[in-house]
Each structure stands twice: as C-alpha cells, then as structure tokens.
Amino acid sequence: MINIEFNKPEQKRQQILRTKGMEMRISSKKKQKVQEKKQQQKGNEQQNEKLPTIPQQEMSQIPEQEQQLTDHLQKPQNEQKGLIKLSTEQQRALEFAKLVLNLADPAEYTDAKPIIKKKQDFTVDPEEEEQEEKIDRTDFLSTAEYQELLDVYSDYNIGELVLKFPNPDWEKMVDRPVDIKEADKVFSSQLAISAEGGVPQSQLTIQRQVFLSTYLQLADYVETDKKKLKETLKKTQTGGTLKDNPDYLNYIAFFEQYRQVKDQSVEELLRKDEPLQRSPSEEINQEVIQMMNLIHLKPNENLDIFQNINKKYCKGGFLYKKWTDDKTDYDWIQVGQTPQDFLTLIRMTVITKLCRDAHFHCRQFISSDDQFIFVVLKSKLEYVRYQAELQRMQKQYELGYADILSLEPCDKLLRPLRLKNYLRDPDFVKEAPNYLEEKKEDPNQKKKLARIDSEAQKIYQGVLKWGDQELRANCVKKQQDLDPLIQWMAVELKINLSSEKTQIADDQPLSRDVWEAYHIYQLYLIDYLKRVQESYKEKEVKANKGFLFKLIFRKAIGDPNELYQAFNNSWFKEKLILANLWDRQGLDPIAPYQEYFVTKPNEGLWRQYEVSEKGHRSEFMNMEKIKIAYATISRFLNIKKMIENEYINCYFALHDPYQLMGLSKAPMIKPLIDLQLVREVQKSPGELKLNNLFVSLKDEAERADFDSDCLVQECKFQWCPPWTLPIDSMRDYFGEKIGLYFRFLQFYSQQLWQVVILAIVCEGVIDNTTGDVKKAFIVIFAVILISWSSYFICHWKRQQTMFQIQFGQNDQSEGGEIERPAFEGDFVRSLITDQLNEEYYPIWKKQFKLFYSSFVTLIIISMVIASVIGVFILKNYLIEEYPNDQFLVSFVPSMINAIVIQLFNLIYFNVSNNLNDFENHKYEQSYEDSLILKTYIFTFINTFNCLAIIAFLNEQFPALSLCKTSDGINCYRALKDQMVTIFMVNFAKTLPQLITPCIKAFIRGKTKQVDENLVTHEFNQIDEFIESQANLEPYVSNAEVDGLMNDYMELVVQFAFLQLFGLAFPLSYFIAFLTNLTQIQVDKLKLIHFIQRPIPSSAANIANWSFIMDVIAFLSVFCNAGLIVFTSGVVPPDSQSSSYAIFVIVFLGLKYFSSFIISPVPEKASLILTRHKFAVDRVQRGMRDQIKSYYNGRLRENIDGVDYEKMQEQEKEHLLKGPNVNVELRKT
Fold first, then answer.
1. Low-confidence ranges of the chain (pLDDT < 50)
2. pLDDT at 409
3. Which of 210, 407, 570, 652 is deepest in the core (most CB within 10 A)?
4. What 3-state DSSP class applies to 31?
5. Nearest CA to 892 among 865, 871, 867, 864?
C-alpha cells in the first residue's frame, strides 16, 4: 500500500503527482546528514514539549477518554510512557480519518516486509554505514512506503486493476455546489458497501462520520450566478433558527480557525521555495479528534443544521500547476495537506478503503494531458489467498498430487503395466537373473542417467536387439529398482497402494513393442525420481513435488512414444504404444477442481502456473488475480454507480505485455532495481535445482505449466483447419466467459462447414432445375436444416459440459452467483447462511417490476409492428392514388421506414437498460439474462418483420408487389434476393469492426494534448504503458454488461436467419461460414490490440443464448414448413393445409428424435466426474489421516502399552518396502 504522490503535502516539483518529477539520488554527504537528522529529532522533541492547549469550551465536547488522552499529550515528552490508549473503535476511526485527510501514509498501517540486512563493517561507525548504503528517499518516500515498495514489483507484475479518476484541478473542470445530503447519499450508496468479507456495519458508521466531518472541512463553494445567489441567501435567512445549534456554532468557529491556518500554509508554500513540514503525529491526532467530536453526525441524526453549507465539487486547489520561471514547463504540486473539494475527498476515501480495508497496494499519477488521475492497484498474495477462500473460488488440484497414478501406462482394460503378470510372475522373477548373467554391460550406459534423453535412441536400438527372455528379464530387474521409488512417491503423496495386492485376473498378454517402450519408460522414471529424491531436502523441490511427479510421468511416456514412432513410421502402427488412463479415453488429463482453501506452504496441493518472464510460479494465474481483485473491490465500493455519477471515469484491467505479445517487462522494472527501489530476488540453491529439473522436463508439460509462447503467437491463423483457436490459452488470459465464447464460435464455424457442401449442391440444383427435381431438393434441404439445427444444439451442450469440467465451472459462478453492487434491499437474516445483514427484496415487488417491464416491452414491440404495417399500408395507398409519381411511391415510404427503425432502436436501447435497472436484479447473471432476452426479442422483431411479410403476408398487400422479381411474381425468389443482400452486408460489416478502433485510436492520438517535456524518472515507462491501456476502447455493451452480448447477438441473429429463411438461399450457409472465419480473426485482433483487457469472469454456460437458440430451432419447424407449402410452390394450393400439418409433424419428429438419441452429457464427462470425486475423496482422506496420525503419534505416544511412534515408523517402512513386509507391534 503505497501512495507515492499524495502522501506528503510538502513535496515540490521533483516529488509530486506529475509523471516527470520523481527523482532519487544517492547521498554524498553522509556524516552531515546524520548530524542534521539528530538535530531535527531534537527540534521535534522541543516542539512536542510546547504543544498548544485547546480551549476549555472545545474540550468539553470531547468524550472523557479522549479528554484524558489530550491532557496527556500536553505533558512533557518524558512523561508519556503511561499513555492511555484509545478504544479499538476510536483508534480505527482515528486511523481512517488520518488517511482520508492525507495526514498519514497508508503503508504505515500494513505489515511491510523489513529491509534486507546487510553485513556491517565494524571499522566504520554503524550509523554512518547505514547512511552510506541507503538511498536518500526523504524527499520522495516515507520509510513504510520504501519498505513495502522493495517487494511490490519483484514479480514483474505492474498491477491488476486501474481506476481512472477525473483531475479536480484541471482547468476545464466545471465547479458546482455539493450539499451535505448529497455527500451523505454518495457515501451511503457508493462507498458504504456491506458485503461478506467487507467492512462491518459498525465500521461503516464510523467511516460515515469521518467522511461527513471531512466534507465539512472542504472549501466553501462561492456562487457566481446572481439568481442562484439570491436563492441561497433566502434559504440562509429562513434557516436562521438552525444557527443557534451548538454543533453548528462549534463548526463555524472551528472552520474559521482551520481555514485561516490553511490559507497561511498555502501562501507560505507558494511564496517560499521550501517544503512545509508535516506536523508531529501526536498533534495530528489531537486535531483529528477535535474535528470529529466538534461535529456529531450519527446515522439517525438530522443533517438539516448544515443544509445551507455548500462545498466545492472540484477546483479546490489541492493540486496546483506551478510554472517554471521561463514559462516553458510546469509541474503539478500539492499545496494542500487535506482535501479541499468533493472529488478529491471521494478519491482519498476510495484509496483509503482500498489500502486499509482491502489491503491493496496503491500508486497514483497524473495523465500526460493533466485530465485524469490514475490509481494503480496491486494485490498482495496473502490477501489474494484469503479472498479466494472467502469467495469460494474454484481452484484446480495439481494432477500429480491428486491423481498421479492415472498418468502411468496401462493396457486396454486400464490395468497398470507395472502390475502385469509379465513383470510379477514369481517363477520368472526367480529365473530372471539367469538371463542377465551373459549380458555385457555397455560402458556408455554406466554414465549418469541424467543424460538419458541424449542416450535414449541408442538404448532403444540396443533393446530392439534383445531376445524375448532377455527383454523380459531386464524389465523385471528395472521394475524391482522402480518399486521402492513408487512406494516412496506414494508415501509423500499419501496414496494407499493396498488395493494393488490383488493379482490381475484374466491378464492378457501384450506385444513385444509395448514392453520395449516400457523398458525405456522405466529408465526415465528411475532416473528422474532419483534426482527428485536426492534434491528432496530442498523446500522448493518439496513444495513442487506433485508438479514434478506429473512432469516425470508425462516425460517418461512421451519420449518412448516418440522413439516408437521414429522407428515404426507406418499407418498401420499405433501412434501411442504406451497410453495412460486419459489416452485410452481420448482425453487430455484433467485434474479435479475444488473450492479453494489455504494449505501449508510446502503442501503443493494446488496447481501452480508460471506467471512472469522471470519464471515466478504461483497458484494463481494473473487472470485469477484480476478476477479476485475486482470481486474484492465490489465488496467495498459500488464502483459502477460511481462511474454513472462521474466520480470515477472508468476502471480497467492491465494487459500483460509478456503473456500477450512476448514483450519483456524488464525495461520497465530495471530503473527501479537500479535505484534499489525494488529488490531483485536472487534464486536460492533449491530454486536452482528445481529449475534444472524443469529445463529437462518442460518439453512434455501442458501449455499453462510454463509460459513459453505468447498469446499472439498461439493465435496465428492456421489454414488447416481455419477455425483453430487456442481455447486453453485464451481462457487462461481472458477468463472463462470469453474462452467459452471463442469455444462456441469455433464449434459453430466447424458445424457450419459440415453442411456447407450439401448447401452448395442444393443451391446449384435448385437454381438450375425445374419441376419435381427442384421441389424434391427444396424438401431435402429443409430436412437437412431441421436435422442440423437439432444436432448442432445437442452437441454444443455436450461441448459446454466438457468445458465446465475442464475449467471447473460446474457451478453458476465461483462461490455462488455474484451480487450486483447496485442491488437495493432490506437487511434481513439469511435463511441459508445465517448471515445477519443480507440484503433482501420481496418477491412480489420483483414480480411486479418484471410484469411492468414485460408490459412496456410488449407495447414497444407492438408499436414497431404497427409502424411497419403502417408503412406498407401507406405505400399501398400511394401506389393506388399516385401510380406515376415514383419519388412519392418509392422514396418516401422507404425513408419513413428507415427513420422509424433507427428511432425505435435508439428508444429501446435506452428503455431496455432503464427497465433492467428498474427490475433491481440481485445477481449479475440474472441482470444480464434479462437484458439479453429484452434486446433479442426487439432485435428479432425489428429484423425479421420484412422477411416474414414477404414470405407469408404478401396477399394482404397486393398493390405493393412485394414478390415482384425479374421472373414475375415469385415470393420465393424475392425472399432469396433479400437474403443475398442481408448476408453480403453482414459479411462486409466484419471489416469495419476492426477498422473503427484503429481510426478512433489514430484520431485520439492526434487530438490529445500531451506535455512533451516530461522529466525522466523511474516510473516513466510504467506510467506510459498504463496510460496507453487507458486509451484503448472498453469492451462493454453497457455499464454492467461486457461486450460479449453484442458478439453473441450477431451470431444468434445469423443462426436465426439460417434456420428460419435459409431454405430460400442455401448458399447463405457458405457465406455465414466465411463470415464466421473472418469474425474469428477480427475478434482475436480486436481483443489483443484494440480493446482494454476485459475483467475476467466465470461462466458455466452461454446464458440465455442457449434458450434462444432452442426457441429458434423450434420456430424453424413451422417456418420451413410454411416456406415449403405456401411460398416455394412445392405444394398445390388445394392441399396446402393438410400438407402443412404433415410437414410440421415430420419436422417435429426429426427435431426431437435427434434430441432424444443425443445426450447433452457425454459418457466421458460422467466418467471424469466420477474419477474426480474419487481423487478429491482420496486427497481429503489423506489429509484427515495426516491430522489423525499427528494426534495419535504426538499426543498419545504411549497409551495402553503400545508405542504409537514406533508403530508409525514401521508403517512407513512397510509402505516403502512393499506389501510383503510384516509389521510387528510390541508392547513395552
């Protein structure tokens, strides 16, 4: 928690917010500084002995305990050993007030890590030596800030989130009055969020009093408008009786005295070229306590006594633009010690809550155009763990810890090869040494097996020359060497191998090729397990045991398979001669997910990821840290409401240039390391050994295990197949919700490709034939459409299920559904969790609001339909009355229709957002689902009304000639012409989606006014990078819904076109396929280069879009039947009714038959879930046994004559030696 720019009000040009003024320099006068420091300490002691007394009238307002504290502070310094402490509640109020008032460093209230101690040379004075090695930071950072900053950027992570505040003292800001009721409302609705894990209600009451008391210290707003000034005077005169209130009188007296001192301080700072010194902490405490007790602002008290007081909204002069003498450059300096306007007060309060309550590290700087103030937030790992457990975040176990045995090779019946009778037959085990006696050891194989990778090919060639008995004997011998290592690994992972005592029944023999590869597998496993065992004393190796075991098994299977393929390159040979449990199921290994809980440091239970270019590993990906950071902020602030009220401009997550584009962040961090502001972490011997193991094992690791390729490189276009996307990597960077969108887009494009060939054939036949052949192909293509839509939806649900299992999204979201900060309700006790202050909104009120929203939506949709029909009626009337006036007949109705459509689009966009806010949804998902449903219904009606009228209502408007084409009156051909136009326009729309952000960025760069004379300092590159991120386009649909809603909308509208009217234009499937391929590339480029990094969020499904597609597929049955019967001319007019019924019945049968035979949950998914449940139970049982063993072994070592400690040692020896060792218990 560090506030570099605002912590010290006396900072001048080199020290303030401006990104050009921060300089650090090494002291050159060490002895002189030591003497000056001693003199300054003596001066402070003398000043503290002469503290000014507080008038007795004011003292009477302070409670008794605080009175004693103030009296005690007025005693000499040597009598303060018996200082009376404030109560916990009072101390918290005092701390919060000092931070909001900018009278204390936020870092002082955190557990900053101590500075590394350096070796001292005792030939030099220790005090002088300390001054020699430390940086002169007194004009830049406080001691607490410096201590914390040392480790903040050592992981090369710049930050998770950035809040963008308006600069109150920017010259173009417009001031306005702010009264105390507005201030109270702002705090209550936007700064006082009472959520689980947030600030308790009692503390919010204290914070409210501090906030309103600080508000009363702000600079008064001076009205310049004469009319408003007269109204203000009238209100002051009518409220004259309130001036007799003691609180009001005390406030006036205090404020006048405070303002006089404040004005003198500002004038002195601007007049002199010397910084003002901050008052001693004891004096600050007195002033804050006096301020808080002069003004009694309890929750239930009336604020009317201050109703005539208006404070400045902005331009309070907290920051001052000071020009150089030659007027060529300027810098922002902080002339006020406390906030002087409402925007500054809000910003300081937000920073205080985030630093003190949410435990963020905060850093601020002003933008290069002076318009905004950026606050960069960075989470602390300890608090990330706490919040992840509090939010019940789904985290993945390390597969090597939870289910390592699923990675060993097995046969087609899933039996492990190490337990096969080929290796365990007792008779052959006795004879095996006979086959090894004649073997001559190759001296090259005497080398240390650490170089087995380079020797593997040579060894495999030798194995191929062995006879069958010799091969079996060598496998048996190596298995005997391998068994103790497997037993040791099982003990370390708390795996019970007692079930393996059973002999395999109906053991089937395997081919020689399998055992040749298995022998290489044994050599790999023995070598790497021994290397891990030798380094196991290092805590870093032990903490990563599960991960190392997983890498070893993957390496031991992967390399023999590659050798086998190299020596047996044939289509008729198996690609995987050694296959584990997952390979047999055709799946990549998936570790189980569980709600996160904090474990012991070296447990290694949770999967870890490489999170930086320096190789730092963490159990939380950067994406997950951003997700937790945003959820944490939501527990303390209603940030979306603050954006709506323009107290905050926006917030956004920071891109990681290394993970995104492979650009190193070292140039940004190096200046901080060079000046010792950041400690460059040196790797320990254990880390070096661990890295050596990683180097030889990482080639068989999963993508997320090591951050080897950047996202840009992985997202390169591939021709075969062109819809290929790195879904895993996109999920790891952008989150599950965006990852699921790209999975849907990829799967949708893939499924379109399956029907494209048939669509092209049908299009060619229908266009170039007539009669029965044409009619038959129309019916055939309709059957294909109905079957494909049902197949697509069913298989997408299966894909969605596998996505949920792969990324732990079985629940709606982590820790349940996410509550909206804007939700308003009454505080009640929760019936589920017994939480005493859970917000509740009555169901009947919610249902009434939903009914009202539905009614308004229905009215608007009815108006849209009526307007379209009205335009057609108008056009029909004009044709009949003015047949020769082409302008009046054609242009006027078309113009009216275009204007009406755009007008209703504009109206409904605003109405739908307001209706959604009015409905007061408690959860974000329900809010988004409701908005999706409203928006899509309107879009559907607005988009398809013309096509529906052409297809089915042509006879109602005969004069319009809606179906008139070059071939005469042909509704089927007219519908096709409309579809051709629509799909060509939709294809052309994909390019502007990419070009528009480029144009906006270019215009913004040209029009932005930037100070070109920035002074170089250590944070320059970091700040420039953050500001460049702020200039990108946000990825949002509205204030509470991200941009995915618009992307899904385009795809589902396209799906509706294909299903409802694609029969008229089969080639539309090919155009849609090309459009989607282009959309994949556009979306990739947009998210990577032109869009702010979206806030990652969880997603188990595609929300209401799945329901909408089901409805569209259902409606397509009736629509396609209608097109065949009424529009295409396939059925004669005299039998249309009966034919329509037959087609509907047949199509419904096709649709539901596909749904019946295709299960939405794959059989593999059920197997994986069952396996995961077994693995989780085994891990939890191992932990329980560990705890039980601890209590039995330590607290009950000698009970009932049994030596439990010795018994535990024998049990461990039994596990290490194998199942044939007998355990003896002896009574003492």
1. 1-35, 37-38, 44-84, 111-139, 239-241, 269, 272-278, 439-441, 443-452, 813-815, 1187-1205, 1207-1208, 1211-1212, 1214-1228
2. 94
3. 210
4. helix
5. 871
The DSSP code for 410 is B
* Rounded Cα gap, residues 623 and 621, in angstroms: 5
984's CB contacts (< 8 A; 6+ apart) are: 1071
CB 500 within 8 A of CB 419: yes
Place of tokens 């009598």: 79
Nearest alpha-carbon partner for 690 in 608, 622, 620, 625: 608
Q: DSSP readout, 571-627?
A: TTS-S-SSB-HHHHTT------EEE-----TT---B--EE-STT--EESS-HHHHHH
Give the pLDDT confidence score for residue 835 in this predicted structure: 63
**Beta carbons within 8 Å of 634's beta carbon, 6+ residues apart:** 193, 195, 818, 819, 821
Residue 935 contacts residue 912 (beta carbons within 8 Å): yes
Are 364 and 560 within 8 A, CB to CB? no
DSSP string, 774-816: HHHHHHHHHHHHHHHHHHHHHHHHHHHHHHHHHHT--SSSTTS
Structure tokens at 103: 């009278």
Distance CA 3, CA 15 (A): 12
Q: Quick check: 904 and 864 in contact, CB under 8 A?
A: yes
CA atoms within 13 Å, Cβ hemisphere of 457: 5
- 498 by Cβ neighbours in 10 Å (0-12 / 13-18 / 19+) ranks as exposed
- Which of 191, 192, 146 lies closest to 3, judged by CA? 146
**Residue 984 per-residue DSSP state:** H
Q: Dihedral, CA atoms, 261, 266, 271, 275, nearest 10 degrees?
A: 100
Place of tokens 């409203």: 934
Name, in order, each residue with C-beta under 8 angstroms of 614's C-beta and a sequence gap of 6 or more: 155, 156, 681
Residue 111: what pLDDT?
A: 46
CA pair distance 537, 558, nearest whole angstrom = 28
Q: How far apart are CA 1074 and CA 1054, in angstroms?
A: 12
Rounded to whole angstroms, the Cα distance separating 475 from 939 reads 68
Grouping H, G, I as helix, E, B as strand and the rest as coil, residue 332 is strand
Say how far apart CA 876 and CA 256 lie, in whole Å.
Answer: 77
Q: Which residues of 1008-1019 are buried (b: 16+ CB within 10 A; e: fewer)?
A: eeebeebbebbb
Bridge partners, 416 (sequence order): 410
For the sheet containing 161-166, what is the strand order? 361-366, 372-378, 161-166, 650-653
The DSSP element (H or E) to which 165 belongs, if any, is strand 161-166
Q: How far apart are CA 991 and CA 999, in angstroms?
A: 12
Q: Which amino acid is at 988?
A: A
The strand pair at 319-323 and 964-965 is best described as unpaired
